[in-house]
Amino acid sequence: MIRTTFYSSTAILLASALTAAPAQAEEGMWTFDNFPAEQMRETYGWAPDQAWLDRVQAAAVRLTGGCSASFVSNQGLILTNHHCVASCLFDNSNGATDYLDDGFIADRRSAELKCPGQQAEVVAKITDVTSEVKGAFGNLSGEALTKARDAKIAEIESANCTDTAKTRCQVVTLFGGGQYKLYTYRKYSDVRLAWAPEDRAATFGGDPDNFNFPRYSLDASFLRAYENGQPVKTPNHLKWNPRPPQDGEVTFVVGNPGSTSRLYTQSQLAFEREVRLPITIATMSELRGRLIRAMDESAEKEREGLDTLNGIENSLKVYIGRTKALNDPQFTRTLAEQEADLKAKSAGNAAMGDPWTDVDQAVTAYRSLYLPARFVSPSSDLYGYARALVFAAQERAKPNRERLPGYTDSALPLTRKRILDERPVYPWLDQLMLEWSLSKAREYLGVDDPDSQLLLGKESPEQLATRLVEGTRLADAAYRQQLWDGGMAAIEASDDPMIRYALKLAERQRALEAQVDEAYSGPLAIAGGKLADARFAAYGDSLYPDATFTLRISYGQVKGWEERGNQVPTTTTLGGTFERATGNAPFDVAPAFAANQAEIDPATVYDFVTTNDIIGGNSGSPVIDRAGTVIGAAFDGNIHSLGGNYGYDPALNRTVSVSTDAVQEALETIYPAPALVKELAGK
User: Fold this and answer.
1) Quick one: which of 600, 603, 595, 666 has its CA closest to 633?
2) CB 619 within 8 Å of CB 655
3) pTM given for the model
4) Fewest CB within a 10 Å sphere: which of 107, 236, 306, 414?
5) H runs (alpha helix) in 347-400
6) pLDDT of 517-574, one tens digit each?
7) Contact between 267 and 365 (Cβ < 8 Å)
8) Cα 28 to chain center, whole Å?
């Protein structure tokens, strides 16, 4: 599954500098305002015109849960992946009804299920605001620079999105600070589930098959956007085209890749390889073991922990793949050569200074801050509510331009929605997460470290987690609403132990953020801008930036690859599912597949691979053909794509998608939904 990672360190690691050379054919997650039409035309003899791009952009959807999607009817119907709606299925389930396991088909619009915390967004406009943001820098540096930058961003977002009920503005940093773009979104805050297959149909093969091919996965589902209680009218939608892909045909993947590090310098890559990745793999592996042990205790815990376990296992595979890539001598030599090429082309530019050394110094400073910055914020849903409520109350008392990112006028509606939407919280799971994160903090920081003592006092991780989870009322959405509405007065008056704990940690968290801004984020903002200028001077302006969970388009073709001397085919079939099945999990066929085997057309093309360049966050992205119709939904990459965080290999990196041909067969035969079939046909 190409999903956003389950655990991510502080967002400051998303800041990047530039090293890579110009993109090869088929490489690139391109912004819509800089699509390389000429480059594509040279490769394929054809490229989409502006009208084609405009139509596709208007139909592309970003799901704030971390996935991509597309409108596929004029009634707000949204195609995405099953694993992108798994949390919605999970949140709507209970001990008597397990929608994640059983699947869900709404027999009427009024039965469609609301998805807590979910929001659908469509890009309406992209505006270059680089000069405005950089103009705020002046001669500032460090924390002062980041504060001035964030203040200007808050000002721009607020001025351009006055109707926060229907629009969202987000200023995005591109090229490590070389560019700043304002993305204006039309948003839909009421998103409901219309159709989803059984979990086993989407996860057939489980973790062994994840990031591999051949695949036999029905990783597709349908949502619907609502407004004022009614389905949204969406005349700008992609035409549903239930046909098999053809070898060699041109394909486009349009979505919101989460983040890449292709523009990192050598010192940033060394930090990934030596510090962040090893810690992440070690701690998440332990979490996986703790969770599996707890889930074995009962069928109820097995159901309640499944969605979390799926996310952990997916992320672990991602991080292990990235580690292998950064320890591959040939791969890392290529990255080093690309940086050396840019340095050589920039030699003699006195005005540029030495941004590589600036980055090196910033990374060195960050190494001493990383552990406290990572571990001083514990992990659990209930603590997450408490921290967000505390920070929201503190920040809302300030002028908009002085607030932290995530709490400005433009960002607050989504923050509020995520805090206040009703969803189940399972105390045992929350306690397990809190115990794990506190124990890892003590392990990595040390017992005598002031931050360990701040986190734990004289309690053990187990004692503290038990006290906080058993004593808090934050699982109650009505209580969260009360604290939100009451602001800082209500927060300070609360005797809820989780709120008191979040208040206790907040000052230290803010101090650490200021230190990181001073030593790392501020210097990188300046160095990244200089490196961007150097790269544009060396290679021209037809370049793509690192992924930022904003709308991108990649082009490629339906094509296999060679693995250990054998040619990997481009497609699988529905019939192949039964041939691959063993009867034992995770290779046990979904019950509806087994019940309808005689009716299923075994020759239906199921999953397929293309050379499109994608990364986590692209889950649910429509796969679009030359005619602009949707023929699939991207849901994964092959094992080689895991190194795609740092670089793209056209010979090996592949996108894995489920075909509309298979989804249509499922809608007609396996999980019948005649109303959706009719709607997709435009009737």
Assistant:
1) 666
2) no
3) 0.93
4) 107
5) 355-375, 381-396
6) 999 999 999 999 999 999 999 998 889 999 999 999 999 999 999 999 999 999 999 9
7) no
8) 18
